[in-house]
From TrEMBL:
Keywords, alphabetical: DNA-binding, Transcription, Transcription regulation
Taxonomic source organism: Nocardioides vastitatis
Name of protein: Crp/Fnr family transcriptional regulator
Cyclic nucleotide-binding domain mapped to chain residues: 5-126
Organism ancestry: Bacteria, Bacillati, Actinomycetota, Actinomycetes, Propionibacteriales
One Pfam family it belongs to: HTH_Crp_2
Record-annotated HTH crp-type domain positions: 140-210
Length: 218
């Protein structure tokens, strides 16, 4: 398994970090950590996909990202002064992670400039991602936001050509796009009538990814 966060380390150093990790398994919909929890580790995703949720002023939650194998989370909490989790992480399907102690993270930051650079780049990417989501929410129609969301999910769940099956509910898509379940359903029905998606219970199947990608480029 290749993790972007460890890309600057040698193979021996990566093996050493992985050996220090404690393997944890999560059932579908199980919470890995809650927003505000004290952090004592960061996680490397081995298997499955996990949703990143943040709290809204209304008290609701928005899912801002989906992490898959090769991803990681928990780094930001370890560099914060208060050391608390900045998001809730929930398993969207059966998932496995390696929980690496915070002491290992801090040691790598001190001794390995390449690791520190990878952490900085990853955190910068996440700021860019949040900025992009903010702009989409302010200036794009809901249909376009949903189409963009589906293309990103296709990249996360796809494995090449053909139909891409996304095992998320319409309520979960609503949490990712700032809509409601009825607005998501209406937008999906339009895409279904165009032959771009197929709706099944508990999942959305993208049957024509090229047309979907073409729509978001126009």
């Amino acid at each position: 398994m290749q993790w972007a966060l460890l890309s600057g380390l040698t193979e021996a150093e990566r093996d050493e970090v992985v050996a220090l990790g404690r393997r944890r398994s999560f059932a579908r919909n199980e919470v890995v950590c809650h927003l505000g929890d004290p952090a004592d580790s960061f996680h490397l995703v081995e298997r499955g996909r996990l949703g990143v949720k943040v709290a809204l002023p209304s008290g609701d939650e928005a899912m801002i990202n989906v992490l898959g194998p090769g991803g990681s989370f928990g780094e930001l909490a370890l560099v914060r002064a208060d050391g608390h989790r900045t998001a809730t992480i929930v398993a969207l399907e059966e998932a496995t992670t390696l929980a690496v102690p915070g002491s290992t993270f801090r040691m790598l930051c001190r001794r390995k400039p390449e690791f520190q650079a990878a952490v900085t780049e990853m955190l910068a990417d996440r700021v860019d991602e949040l900025s992009r989501l903010l702009l989409e929410g302010m200036y794009f129609t809901f249909d376009r936001r949903l189409q963009l969301c589906l293309t990103r999910l296709a990249a996360a769940y796809g494995s090449g050509a053909g139909t891409v099956s996304i095992p998320l509910t319409q309520s979960q898509l609503a949490a990712m796009t700032g809509g409601t379940r009825p607005t998501v359903n209406l937008a999906l029905q339009k895409l279904s009538e165009q032959g771009i998606v197929r709706l099944t219970r508990g999942r959305i199947e993208i049957t024509d990814l090229r047309r979907l990608q073409a729509k978001v480029r126009t």
